Amino acid sequence: MANIIEIMKAHSSVRKFTDEVIPDKKIREFIEAGRAAGNWKNFQSYSVIIVKSIETKNAIYEAHNSISTKAVMSCSHFIVFVGDMNRAEKAVKLNGGDFQPAGVESILISSIDAALAAENVLLAAEADGFGGVMMGLLREKSVEISDILGLPDYTYPLFGIALGVPAKINPVKPRLPYETMVFNEKYVEQDESVIRAYDEVQSDYAGTRRLGSSWSSRIVEQWGKPEERSSTENLKAKKLL
Ligand SMILES: Cc1cc2nc3c(=O)[nH]c(=O)nc-3n(C[C@H](O)[C@H](O)[C@H](O)COP(=O)(O)O)c2cc1C
């Protein structure tokens, strides 16, 4: 097996897959590797839903009906990570406590736990020659996705990982220069020149691949307007906000 640091640094998201199906046994092994990640107080505040039926994939794809979720249809398995305070409710009840999960901290705890496990799952799959992409765009349809997956109170969808056999592997995407985001002892605020320079790096990287917009203009698309409401609505419906 290649050195783990080499595997981590060779990561690039895969969005196009062959028709080959990953054996369920391997999927289980990748998820077991993911579950080995550290988590808040060992509460393990997340769940994982393995989607491989065409019906469920189709329902997820149809909820968005956009090119951005196409990988859901072509992947072998779509592994959805769910922030999960439902078991915590049972534990609090069991101990006669008053369950009060609503608020930012529960969401941070469960999201971080899930993210750490998910990254391990993807790395395990990559180490075994498979590829994938995380898909957080699910959350634009949090309410619909919750329905499709039958999510109960105190749970919410975070993202999925589309996993499969890569049909196309993109070159490793350059990150921001180390010095612009890793500091010694104290935070160092950066100026616009960093953004401008990285826009260049990103357009050089994209080359002939059509992205249609610069890196920083994609940030405007995300944060130059009020946030999508679906996650907030869903978190309220699930009694977490
Ligand atoms: C939590 C999370 C959610 C993501 N959601 C999406 C998504 O919905 N659609 C997509 O095409 N890529 C998604 N990505 C992939 C990122 O766009 C990708 O990781 C980033 O551009 C860096 O590229 P690389 O993974 O190839 O290095 C997501 C990544 C993460 C970590």
UniProtKB/TrEMBL annotation:
The keyword NADP applies. PANTHER family: OXYGEN-INSENSITIVE NADPH NITROREDUCTASE. One of its GO terms (molecular function) is oxidoreductase activity. This is Nitroreductase. Keywords: Flavoprotein, FMN, NADP, Oxidoreductase. It comes from the Bacteria. Belongs to the flavin oxidoreductase frp family. Pfam families: Nitroreductase. Residues 10-164 form the Nitroreductase domain.
